[in-house]
Write a structure and sequence with these properties.
This protein is α+β, with helices and mostly antiparallel strands. The protein has 5 helices and 9 strands; from the N terminus they run H-H-E-E-E-E-E-H-E-H-E-E-H-E. The strands form 2 sheets. A 5-stranded antiparallel β-sheet has the order 1-2-8-4-5. It has a 4-stranded mixed β-sheet with strand order 7-6-3-9.
Length: 188
């Protein structure tokens, strides 16, 4: 009886160790993360509409088919990015990820409080070089500091009903993600 119980305990412990090691190793073993999956579909520093998710296929795993989505692969090595996203009728969200899929910032239309979500994305070094103006507040200008020079911005707009999908896609079609062409000044 003790041998059977010892074999069961050893089997459970060995199974737990194998499970833990495989779960912890999966991010480094996985061949394609979201950044790599979107590389053939998108251009750098350009907003690109993603195909609608279906049960059989989606650009990024586990995408909700009730959302229209667009992505921007960014590279901040040539300067900051200016992002502008008009909000849709139902709900709009913007999420920021490093190229290693680490989420570091998210904003939605309700927290932005405007009809257009506008922000500047830059590295810490680029942010330090922005002139300071005491009259400009954080509400006037939203600056996001990226922990890496490359990454991914994912924009999603909800179509509350299937008939509203075209409207959600139209809202994302006018979203822009581009290099800041003018020198960044404190006043806008």
């Amino acid at each position: 009886m003790i041998r059977i119980l010892a074999a069961i305990v050893a089997g459970v412990l060995l199974g737990g160790i194998i499970h833990l090691v495989s779960v912890l190793a999966m991010p480094t073993i996985a061949t394609k993360n979201a950044y790599e999956r979107l590389t053939p579909l998108t251009k750098v520093n350009t907003m690109t509409a993603l195909p609608l998710a279906t049960p059989d296929q989606s650009a990024i795993p586990f995408m909700d088919p009730a959302f229209a989505a667009a992505a921007c692969r960014y590279d901040l090595s040539n300067g900051p990015i200016k992002l502008s996203v008009p909000v849709s009728q139902s709900y709009t969200s913007v999420s920021f990820y490093t190229d290693d899929e680490i989420a570091y910032y998210a904003i939605n239309d309700r927290s932005a409080g405007r009809k257009v979500i506008e922000l500047d994305l830059m590295t810490d070094e680029q942010h330090e070089n922005v002139p300071k103006d005491e009259e400009v507040t954080a509400a006037d200008r939203l600056i996001i500091d990226s922990p890496s020079t490359t990454g991914l911005i994912l924009v999603r707009a909800l179509a509350a009903e299937p008939g509203l999908m075209a409207q959600a896609q139209a809202a994302l079609a006018s979203a822009t993600c581009r290099l800041e062409t003018e020198p960044i000044s404190a006043k806008r």
